[in-house]
């Protein structure tokens, strides 16, 4: 028998070869995705491609039972990873095998798979969970609305943790299948297209599909008793609108507004390019909130948006978000202007189209009606901070920035920017700086100073800057700030545009009902 002599160095090398080179580098994924405003939002270490949610909801008790199947790809060697969920978890499986799990904080679900997960490999995660969403409070607020006949998930910047496990940040968008079983006579509304509906043993199951990337906060669920209208656009896109049966005096105004969804979307296609998703619509549940939200393909509207009559302007705002906010989403929540400044400006363009005041007249009115010492001017739309993320300045001053841009580069380039941006960035994410760079590329002009003035300086732009942007020449403030003296010709105060009242009535779209107390 021949014995081979192995020297120590060879032995050591063979032992090293027996251990995977990356074994020592398996680490937990970060508990946050890195958002500057909300460090606990989202998670690191993986990227989700699809959510399959199979749910059962009992309206009388608010009990939600769910099985979520999550398809993801690892972005690092993972020993552990987090999901965001606030409800009770019963079981987690990773690639078919039971995984250990624990909870921490308000909504962190820490999952330890049976074996570590190598980088760049597909992973299937199944989470079985249950709970009453209305009993879950995070930072003192909830994204779940109880209604007389059910419940609704719709909130910004968070709503997913109340009803499904996720990587809860716009940076990780995915496609969705949402299947919901509810008692017969009750409906379940979600995003996208209703694929099928069937009843068995007193329960009806609704199967919805949203086939384009969707941020988790844009996923919605509404269970209740609705009057539903359906139609198709000229291009064959399914349209579904839903109205709670108990909207009372607001019912007519809500319908008169939302039934114009197809018309508004077709007009917006002329401004922003082809509609980016597979369905269209809106819904109005019987909730007590006052805001609206751009939930993908099917915006959520509170009945109070229609308390003073029909208001198509709010429909314009939420549908504009389908391009600006839904298809092109924020890179981080500090970039909220790339959502809200454009949605508000779309309302100004609708006013211009309807002959109720041009965007220029609305810009003049906003600039002139806010004194220099108004706190409005201290908010920086380009980086407002988490406490001011939904401040009215992000909307109105944000739209002023776009009118200044329009005046600087001219209508041809301006509307080329509005249409080209959501095409080039479709289904992705972007920073404010990305838009500035894009506008410079299209127009061939340096624009950093203009955007700095209107988005980042915590003061009212002085008369020279405003005049250069095509604003102050028509305002009383211009005469005062420019030092108009005796004998100077009086400068007329801008007249309030006819559309202003309806636009201002939609200001509560930014009041998300939780006083911005996210608890993150």
Mean pLDDT: 91
The percent of residues in helical segments reads 25-40%
How is the largest sheet built, in terms of strand order? Answer: 6-5-9-3-2-12-15-14
Number of helices: 12
Question: How many distinct beta strands?
Answer: 23
User: What distance lies between the first and last C-alpha atoms, to the nearest angstrom?
Assistant: 69 Å
Structural class: alpha+beta
Pfam families: Peptidase_M1 (PF01433), Peptidase_M1_N (PF17900)
Domain Aminopeptidase N-like N-terminal: 49-218
Domain Peptidase M1 membrane alanine aminopeptidase: 310-454
Cofactor: Zn(2+)
Question: Can you give a write-up of this model?
Answer:
An 8-stranded mixed beta sheet has the order 6-5-9-3-2-12-15-14, with no helix packed on it. It contains 12 helices and 23 strands. Helices cover 27% and strands 26% of the residues. The protein has 520 residues and is of the alpha+beta class. Helix 4 crosses helix 5, helix 5 crosses helix 7 and helix 7 packs across helix 8. It is globular. Pfam families: Peptidase_M1, Peptidase_M1_N. This is Aminopeptidase N. Its cofactor is Zn(2+).
Note the topology.
Elements: H1 8-18, E1 27-28, E2 46-58, E3 63-74, E4 78-84, E5 88-94, E6 97-98, E7 100-104, E8 108-112, E9 122-131, E10 144-147, E11 150-153, E12 174-183, E13 187-189, E14 193-200, E15 203-214, E16 221-224, E17 226-232, E18 238-244, H2 251-258, H3 261-272, E19 280-284, E20 292-293, E21 300-301, H4 312-320, E22 329-330, H5 337-354, H6 359-369, H7 392-424, E23 429-430, H8 432-443, H9 448-456, H10 463-468, H11 476-481, H12 500-505
Organism: Streptomyces solicathayae
Protein name: Aminopeptidase N
Family: Belongs to the peptidase M1 family.
């Amino acid at each position: 028998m021949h014995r081979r002599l192995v020297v120590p160095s060879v032995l050591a090398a063979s032992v090293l070869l027996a251990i995977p080179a990356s074994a020592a580098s398996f680490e937990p994924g970060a508990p946050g995705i890195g958002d500057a405003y909300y460090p606990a939002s989202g998670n690191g270490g993986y990227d989700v491609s699809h959510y399959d949610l199979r749910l059962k909801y009992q309206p009388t008790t608010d009990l939600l039972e769910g099985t979520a199947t999550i398809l993801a790809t690892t972005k690092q060697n993972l020993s552990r990873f987090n999901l965001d969920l606030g409800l009770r978890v019963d079981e987690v499986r990773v690639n078919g095998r039971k995984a250990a799990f624990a909870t921490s904080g308000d909504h962190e679900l820490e999952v330890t798979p049976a074996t570590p997960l190598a980088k760049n490999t597909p992973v299937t995660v199944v989470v079985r969970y249950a709970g009453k969403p209305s009993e879950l409070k995070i930072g003192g607020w909830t994204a779940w609305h109880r209604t007389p006949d059910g419940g609704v998930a719709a909130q910004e910047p968070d709503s997913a943790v109340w009803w499904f496990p996720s990587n809860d940040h716009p940076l990780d968008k995915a496609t969705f299948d949402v299947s919901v079983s509810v008692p017969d006579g009750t409906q379940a509304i979600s995003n996208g297209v209703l694929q099928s509906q069937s009843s068995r043993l007193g329960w009806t199951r609704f199967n919805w599909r949203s086939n384009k990337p969707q941020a988790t906060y844009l996923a919605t669920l509404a269970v209740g008793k609705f009057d539903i209208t359906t139609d198709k656009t000229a291009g064959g896109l399914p349209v579904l609108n839903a109205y709670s049966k108990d909207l009372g005096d607001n019912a007519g105004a809500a319908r008169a507004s939302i039934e114009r969804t197809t018309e508004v979307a077709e007009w917006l296609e002329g401004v922003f390019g082809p509609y980016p998703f597979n369905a269209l619509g809106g819904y109005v549940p019987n909730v007590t909130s006052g805001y609206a939200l751009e939930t993908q393909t099917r915006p959520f509207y509170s009945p109070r948006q229609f308390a003073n009559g029909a208001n198509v302007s709010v429909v314009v705002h939420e549908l504009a978000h389908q391009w600006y906010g839904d298809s092109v989403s924020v890179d981080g929540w500090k970039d909220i202007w790339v959502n809200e400044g454009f949605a508000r400006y779309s309302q100004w363009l609708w006013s211009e189209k309807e002959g109720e005041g041009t965007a220029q007249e609305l810009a003049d009115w906003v600039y002139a009606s806010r004194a220099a010492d108004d706190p409005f001017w201290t908010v920086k739309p380009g980086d407002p901070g988490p406490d001011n993320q939904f401040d009215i300045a992000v909307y109105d001053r944000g739209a002023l920035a776009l009118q200044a841009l329009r005046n600087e580069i001219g209508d041809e380039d301006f509307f080329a920017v509005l249409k080209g941006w959501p095409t080039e960035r479709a289904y992705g994410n972007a920073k404010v700086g990305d838009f500035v760079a894009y506008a410079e590329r299209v127009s061939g002009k340096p624009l950093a100073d203009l955007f700095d003035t209107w988005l980042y300086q915590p003061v009212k732009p002085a008369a020279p800057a405003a005049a250069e942007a095509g604003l102050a020449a028509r305002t009383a403030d211009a005469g005062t700030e420019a030092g108009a003296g005796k004998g100077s010709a009086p400068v007329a105060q801008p007249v309030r545009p006819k559309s202003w009242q309806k636009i201002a009535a939609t200001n509560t779209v930014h009041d998300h009902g939780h006083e911005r107390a996210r608890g993150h």
